[in-house]
Amino acid sequence: MTKFVVTGGNRLQGCVRISGSKNSTLALMFAAALGKDDVVLTNIPLNSDVKTVAEILKSIGVRVDFEGQSVIINGKDITNHQPPYELVRRIRASIYTVGLLLGRLGLADVAMPGGDEIGTRPVDLHMRGFQTLGAEVSIEHGQMVCKSLGLRGATYYVNKVSVGATINMMLAAALAEGTTIIDNPAKEPEVVDCAILLNSMGAKIRGAGTASIKIEGVQSLHGCEHTPIPDRIEAGTFMIAAAATGGDVQVSNVITEHLRMVISKLRETGAEIIEGDNDIRVISNHRLKTVDVDTGVYPGFATDLQAPFGVLLSQAEGTGIICETVFDNRFRYIDELRRMGADIKVERDTAIFRGVERLSGAPVVATDIRAGVALVIAGMMAEGVTEVSGISHIERGYERFDEKLKDLGADLARVSESLEEVKA
Ligand code: UD1
Fold first, then answer.
1. Same-domain pairing of 199 and 324
2. I need a surface site. Which of 40, 58, 106, 247 has the fewest CB within 10 A?
């Protein structure tokens, strides 16, 4: 077991290059396996979720070869419709196996992802979508079992905006017979990225990123090369970390349009933001002001940035309110933050932050990916030493997070339980 030991007080300074999007890459790997030719994904982030998806794909017969920062995926030999539970249960994105298998084999038997640390995470919207395309869907012994003698295009109005259900529908419908329309789809950039890859493979998908997506099913898909979009959540994390530590950081390899809400909210706190073509500089050299934030679906404030932003608010001047509208249990980091001296009151989906002068370092536990990076940011802001355990969560979604922070001047070490420093 390793943990990060963070000594607070250093301003982050310098330049950080953002990796390819984790959430995009997970979806793109499943999409790539829908065809029977090689699909090359370049500049992918090499984090543990990507490696888990590779294992899941291999378990159903997909060839997956990593070459440096690229991965080559070939779904020609998919035969197994039952990926093992011990792989599937590790990540929520394993639900995309169902769309892939239904599209390719008309058969899927995949363990249901459970609720997890950020709240209950039902899959009803995915199931209804597959049923709309004509599949028989049932839950048997904790497995989602889907059968179809051939999916047929249909119109599906998605009751609640869902990134996962939208992508799963695109996967299943790309090779279905006829035209599928997804009304009220998620408009997140990762959905658009997935549609772009599928279209490069020969799919006919129009309207991704708008209020309605139209998919004309095709007979087969072919190979191509694709680079995922930059990770807007990683970019937002470093922007917030720069502002929260009173730093001056150039965040490079970003699409600024994907970061409008973070840019606006950081400006409201008093941080200076200078926008370039594909980089953003964040400068802050005085105490920030608190602001109110409601998380929401894109282009609203990303729920994945709620915890890092909450940490920033905990030391800002005044009282700020965060309303978490997407997930029902995403304030667990707050208990840890209180141990560091933060003054925060939580009532259902709302957290009220009364900014304190200075957090103080303490041992804390990361409960999910974003809570983990948020607590590391808290450690950099705090007086003294903060030990963040549970860092395997961080490594699920961030590539070289500690190295990138150290390059910016953070005082951070990766240590084993015996407090002996280990090599990164
Ligand atoms: C994806 C992202 C996650 C991000 C989230 C919201 C990946 C791997 N994960 O998760 O980082 O925080 O989008 O931007 O890309 N819901 C239902 N029924 C369903 C499906 C979802 O009620 O069948 C609800 C969820 O409980 C949640 C909301 O819809 O309240 C949004 O979830 P969704 O967009 O599906 O999130 P994910 O795709 O799981």
1. no
2. 58
State whether 6 and 129 are in the same domain: no
| Residue span of the structural domain in which 146 resides | 22-226
Taking the centre of ligand 1 as the mean of its atom positions, its distance from the CA of residue 186, in whole angstroms, is 10
Strand order across the beta sheet in which 70-74 lies: 63-67, 70-74, 39-41, 224-226
Distance (Å, rounded) from C-alpha 77 to C-alpha 73? 11
CA 26 to the chain's CA centroid? 9
Phi-psi region of 108 (alpha: psi -120 to 50; beta: other; left: phi over 0): beta
List the residue whose alpha carbon is closest to atom 13 of ligand 1.
163
Return the minimum-mean-pLDDT range out of 122-136, 138-152, 170-184, 409-423.
Answer: 409-423
Our mutation pick for probing the ligand 1 site, out of 130, 137, 160, 368, counting the most ligand atoms within 8 A of Cβ, is 160
Residue 267 burial (10 A CB sphere; 0-12, 13-18, 19+): middle
Kindly give the distance from the C-alpha atom of residue 164 to the centroid of ligand 1, in angstroms, as a whole number. Answer: 6
CB atoms within 10 A of CB 290: 22
Cα separation, 402 vs 93, whole angstroms:
24
Shared domain check, 197 and 145: yes
Same domain, 331 and 413: yes
Tell me which of 162, 167, 188, 330 to substitute to probe ligand 1's pocket, judged by most ligand atoms within 8 Å of the beta carbon.
162
d(CA 250, CA 239): 9
User: Under a CB-based contact definition with an 8 Å cutoff, are residues 334 and 342 in contact?
Assistant: yes
Whether residue 43 contacts residue 227, with contact meaning beta carbons closer than 8 Å, is answered with yes
Q: Which residues line ligand 1 (CB under 6 A)?
A: 23, 26, 92-93, 121-126, 160, 162-165, 186, 190, 303-304, 326-327
Q: What is the CATH number of the domain that holds 135?
A: 3.65.10.10
User: Same domain for 271 and 219?
Assistant: no
Q: Is the pTM here over 0.85, yes or no? A: yes
Question: What does the pLDDT read at residue 424?
Answer: 47
User: Ligand 1 centre from 120 Cα, in Å?
Assistant: 10
pLDDT in tens, 48-82: 999 999 999 999 999 999 999 999 999 999 999 99
- The tokens describing 416, both together, are 């084993």
What separation in angstroms does the CA of 172 have from each of 84, 154, 310? 21, 12, 37
Beta strand spans in 217-264 (E): 224-226, 248-252
